[in-house]
Amino acid sequence: MSIQDFFCPKCGKPMEHEGLCNQCRIGNTPWFECDRRVKSTHCPSCGALKQVNTWTDTEHERAVLAPELAKTAVHFHPDVKKPSMDVTIQDNTLNRSTATIVMRGLLYNTPVEGTCSVELIWHKEQCDRCNRISGSYYEGNVQVRADGRSPSTFEVQMAAGIAQAVEDSLQAGGERLSFISDMNETKEGLDITVGSQHIGTLISQGIIAQLGGRFTTHPKLVGEKNGRQLYRITYSVRLPRFQKQDVVLSRGRYLEVVRVESNHLKVLDLTEGAPRTVREEDVERLIGNLRNAEPALVAYADARILGVLDPATCQTKEFGKLKWLDVKAGQNVLILRDGDQLIVVG
């Protein structure tokens, strides 16, 4: 041993550097701290978790959340390398659990191990969204109606599906307060009560994008909060007079509505199979919709004549060969009725 050798000032162990040896440094260093208790706040209605002042939706059960919650109670010294934790949970009551945590790591290149116990508190609190829903809070109402008629069952179902899809998308994106609190079918159409103006706008836009028509907004002042005026908005969605796949009569010709544009209809001539454009005011009457068409058997077909068996009377009705329809005897076509007259629509 030479005079240049170093010694640990605490235990006297020979060292290659000045200061305490690793064992003495570990003994003098509190390499972890463990909080006595941690609290988790969740909503009893929807299961959302509260972190500081922010609510977050989660699908995890308590058994999954408990170990992660317990780990937040442990604070390692900055010099600890490769820390790891094994957690065992024991449920004591509905609102209390005990977590036993075994901690391991490397401190100054020396393996260390320790144990601590943490009390887990499961606190229940109604979240911001459920609180608004239970309090019947809303910021808008989407009213789906149709010009000159009642919306069809298909349109009502489509509008409801669009509204649900918009809500799912916003909720997945973190907009917890963009919710649908109520949805009711009425004789006039569909009423959708919404929790934010944003979702009301997106639902209205989605419905007219799929079904056509237009919407207008009608705000109503309902109060003031923190110096800001509060409004509730009625979104008046008006579906067009005619809808896609309607069959109409115009100037003696039967036409299938392909698309509605302003006051014009893009249609398919069911005699010639040619696309046309007609004005709404030139439509004499509505015959029906392809969704309500019934099947009928083709009794015979040649280059000029198509014979269709009326399923109601069992009589054969003849039609001129339809250029847009390729059908053979024994196959079915779709028909609508205009009084005693059959119309082949598909």
Could you tell me how far the N terminus lies from the C terminus, measured between alpha carbons in angstroms? 105 Å
Written as H for each helix and E for each strand, in order along the chain, the element string is: EEHEEEEHEEEEHEHEEHEEEEEEEEEEEE
Q: Care to count the β-strands?
A: 25
Look at the helices and sheets and give the structural class.
alpha+beta
What is the CA-atom radius of gyration, in angstroms?
Answer: 36 Å
Biggest sheet architecture:
6 strands, mixed
Strand content: over 45%
**Broad shape:** elongated
Mean pLDDT: 85
Integer count of domains? 3
Number of helices: 5
How are the strands of the largest sheet arranged? 6-5-4-10-9-8
Q: What are the low-pLDDT stretches, counting only 5+ consecutive residues below 50?
A: none
| Fraction in helix | 10-25%
